[in-house]
Amino acid sequence: MEKPGGGGVLSAKEAFEKLEKVGEGTYGKVYRAREKATGKIVALKKTRLHEDEEGVPPTTLREVSILRMLSRDPHVVRLMDVKQGQNKEGKTVLYLVFEYMDTDLKKFIRSFRQTGQTVPPQTIKSLMYQLCKGVAFCHGHGILHRDLKPHNLLMDPKTMMLKIADLGLARAFTVPIKKYTHEILTLWYRAPEVLLGATHYSMAVDIWSVGCIFAELVTKQALFPGDSELQQLLHIFRLLGTPNEDVWPGVSKLMNWHEYPQWNPQSLSTAVPSLDELGLDLLSQMLKYEPSKRISAKKAMEHAYFDDLDKRHL
Amino acid sequence: MAPSFDFASSLLCTEDSAVFDESHNNGGTMMSMMGVYEDTWSPRKRHFDEEPDELPLLSDESLAMMVEKECQHWPGLRCLNKLQTGDLDFGARMEAVDWILKVRSHFGYCSRSSLVIQNYLDRFLCAYELPKGRVWTMQLLAVACLSLAAKLDETEVPLSLDLQVGESKFLFEAKTIQRMELLVLSTLKWRMQAITPFTFLDYFLCKINDDQSPLRSSIMRSIQLISSTARGIDFLEFKPSEIAAAVAMYVMGETQTVDTGKATSFLIQHVEKERLLKCVKMIQELSCNSGSAKDSSASVTCLPQSPIGVLDALCFSYKSDDTNAGSSVNSSHNSPVAKRRKLNKTCGADLL
């Protein structure tokens, strides 16, 4: 790691040639860049530290420290370095240097939607297995991602490798996780217990997101595309039935609970018609209302849906 | 000085406010002790609306991974040696630790936070040489470590000005703290997911209780003991898993609910038996308030037992004045308007 003010060490600006801006991360811009010394293509996530603000942003701190803990899992994006530099106005800037991935799952699904083709079933199976494996790895290290969505799942379209990225909202759950307010989490992949104001998260919130992504890979459309928290809940209730104390003990005591229209559960096959029986079973276990009943990522990897998948290179 | 754990509770700020209430009602001593602090800062405890959900326990594999990884975050014997030989300023560290405990209490952070902060502090001190003779650098380091821990784990991060509550001689600007934060982060290689005894505690308590959830009182007692190990330096020689195992064994043994031999045979699958037993013995001494005779200049494992002891501890604040002339890091020097008169001229000598 480069020390501040170290003489003779290339600054981040000198070490890399920015090629193009490829996005906005949780905090700051992301560039495709070439490392001049090696010619290697990397992703640079730039975070400016405003001196009138409160130092290193919490999202950057969490992302880096968590990625330090999760280093070298093939299904979590690799953080290669953290460099400190200064921009033109002399302000301190941090550059997170990541391995570069050509695309993400959101773009991947969109490309199939545009051509009218379906994603090949074995491709779906492979991507889902890798996702479960990456999530199992995070959970095994006591890390919740909390913002799993297609945009945060990077892909190499040549090898069909998938990697989990953007851990700026991730949390260690080996400490009591307190209530979070004013969280800006993508609605479509948000677990019902979060929407209903549960004050404590568990690993199950990530599994719900995985289930939503699974369905989206099959249909190329979001499973629950709500545009407000209430609409998000109603989308869920229309398909899975309005929950009650029988299917989800404790649900009526959650903070945001009130009277909702009463829907009966529909079969998942109505929402994901082309998924086979084993896939539907796995999906249903990912979308259980009661968080403790939701399948774990590790158990999901063992599900029969993946039996015929060649896992040797995954 | 024998510590009072009622007093420890009020300072170490156990998560359960009911415990604090009980301590508070234990008599005039506690009332008068709390009165000591009213003029300088007001502890503000957050109250949780609901019973916390049970945490997901670490799986057996996760436990093994954490034990393997904890050495990356453990200051260890190297740090202990530096403190004992005087390479590190023991007194300044003690002062920083005391300040951390007070601020943590003020903001109502859970006990784990203070261990995380101290983990950062000790790892940094082992890896980086702060300029000698400038006591403000230790204070700045403590502020930066507190700020980083708050950002990492807490949902509400106070402004850097508000972080500097309590009786501190220096008040640092946000940009100064930022620069120290970056120095700490690069020195620790951004490995900030500190593994502390709390990482392992629930797992061990549950396992030696035949996979049943332990009593809440056992959890609170364990939290109290772990927090108490942090103030002195004696426990620095033990890894977090060893401290957690020893505390779990001691607490469950104390309640007579488990077979000690059975607990030992389980725990030594994860920690070395000799070190476990040594640590249990030290926990026992800490708990019984009867530490064996120790060189008081080398370590302090007891908390002040009386208001006079508290005031003695506060005397650290007035040991020396320092100027920041020529410093490479800017700071705002904020002297107390009315300097508190020293109660005991020898308080520093007694402890250093």
UniProtKB/TrEMBL annotation, chain A:
Binding site for ATP: 45
InterPro entries: CDK (IPR050108), Kinase-like_dom_sf (IPR011009), Prot_kinase_dom (IPR000719), Protein_kinase_ATP_BS (IPR017441), Ser/Thr_kinase_AS (IPR008271)
Sequence ranges assigned to domain Protein kinase in this UniProt record: 16-306
Pfam family for this entry, one: Pkinase
One GO term describing the cellular component: cyclin-dependent protein kinase holoenzyme complex
Keyword ATP-binding: yes
Gene Ontology terms describing biological process: G1/S transition of mitotic cell cycle; regulation of G2/M transition of mitotic cell cycle; regulation of gene expression; signal transduction
Catalysed reaction equations from the record: L-threonyl-[protein] + ATP = O-phospho-L-threonyl-[protein] + ADP + H(+); L-seryl-[protein] + ATP = O-phospho-L-seryl-[protein] + ADP + H(+); [DNA-directed RNA polymerase] + ATP = phospho-[DNA-directed RNA polymerase] + ADP + H(+)
Stored Gene3D superfamilies: Phosphorylase Kinase, domain 1, Transferase(Phosphotransferase) domain 1
Family named by the database record: Belongs to the protein kinase superfamily. CMGC Ser/Thr protein kinase family. CDC2/CDKX subfamily.
Protein name: Protein kinase domain-containing protein
Automatic annotation (TrEMBL), chain B:
UniProt keyword Cell cycle, yes or no: yes
Key words of the record: Cell cycle, Cell division, Cyclin
CDD domains registered for this protein in UniProt: CYCLIN_AtCycD-like_rpt1, CYCLIN_AtCycD-like_rpt2
Listed Pfam families: Cyclin_C, Cyclin_N
The Cyclin C-terminal domain, residue ranges: 195-306
Swiss-Prot/TrEMBL GO biological process terms: cell division; G1/S transition of mitotic cell cycle
Top-level taxon in the UniProt lineage: Eukaryota
Gene Ontology cellular component terms for the protein in this record: cyclin-dependent protein kinase holoenzyme complex; cytoplasm; nucleus
Domain named Cyclin-like: residues: 98-186
Keyword Cell cycle belongs to the record: yes
One example GO MF annotation: cyclin-dependent protein serine/threonine kinase regulator activity
Subunit structure: Interacts with the CDC2 protein kinase to form a serine/threonine kinase holoenzyme complex also known as maturation promoting factor (MPF). The cyclin subunit imparts substrate specificity to the complex.
Family listed: Belongs to the cyclin family. Cyclin D subfamily.
Descriptive protein name: B-like cyclin
Organism listed in the record: Glycine max (Soybean)
Name of encoding gene: LOC100792867
